[in-house]
Structure formats: structure tokens, C-alpha cells
Amino acid sequence: MRNYEKRLQAIKRIADGKTAKVAFLDFRNGQYFLDGRAVDIQNIRASAIIIDDISDEGGEEDESDG
């Protein structure tokens, strides 16, 4: 848990920086997508990359607590 907290703090520092670039990628069907276009993750120039894993099932997951 401590390692996770340190990583989260590092991401927060990067996101709070004035010159930081954060890239939000979608991951589905074994490929990474940026703004709807397939990209090679090795060629992304960013201070931090956040990946959203889109399930292949097509159904929406209920993430509510209730």
C-alpha cells in the first residue's frame, strides 16, 4: 500500500506542475487509443500516462456503492 501511495503522490505532483503533459489513453482490444486514434504507447511523449481499460464485453459495469 505504501508503494501505491508514493506513486499516487508522484502523479499528483506531475499533474499540479505548470508544464506537465498528461496523456489519457483508452485500452481496448489489445490496442491503445488517443483521441479515438490507435497509437503506439512507446511513442507517446508525456510526463504521465493514464490508461482507461475498456472492457470487451460491451456491457456497462455498475460502480455505484448502493
Detail the poorly predicted runs: none
Helix content, binned percent? 10-25%
Question: If you average the pLDDT, what whole number results?
Answer: 77
Strand content: 25-35%
Distance between the termini: 26 Å
Number of separate helices: 1
The counted number of beta strands is 4
Structural write-up:
This protein has one helix at residues 2-16, and strands spanning 22-28, 31-34, 37-39, 48-53. It is α+β, with helices and mostly antiparallel strands. Strands 3-2-1-4 form a 4-stranded mixed β-sheet, covered by helices on one side.
Descriptive tags:
66 residues; alpha+beta; four-stranded mixed β-sheet; 4 strands
List the helices and strands and how they pair.
Elements: H1 2-16, E1 22-28, E2 31-34, E3 37-39, E4 48-53
Parallel strand pairs: 1-4
Antiparallel strand pairs: 1-2, 2-3
Brief description of this entry?
This protein is of the alpha+beta class and 66 residues long. It has one helix and four strands.
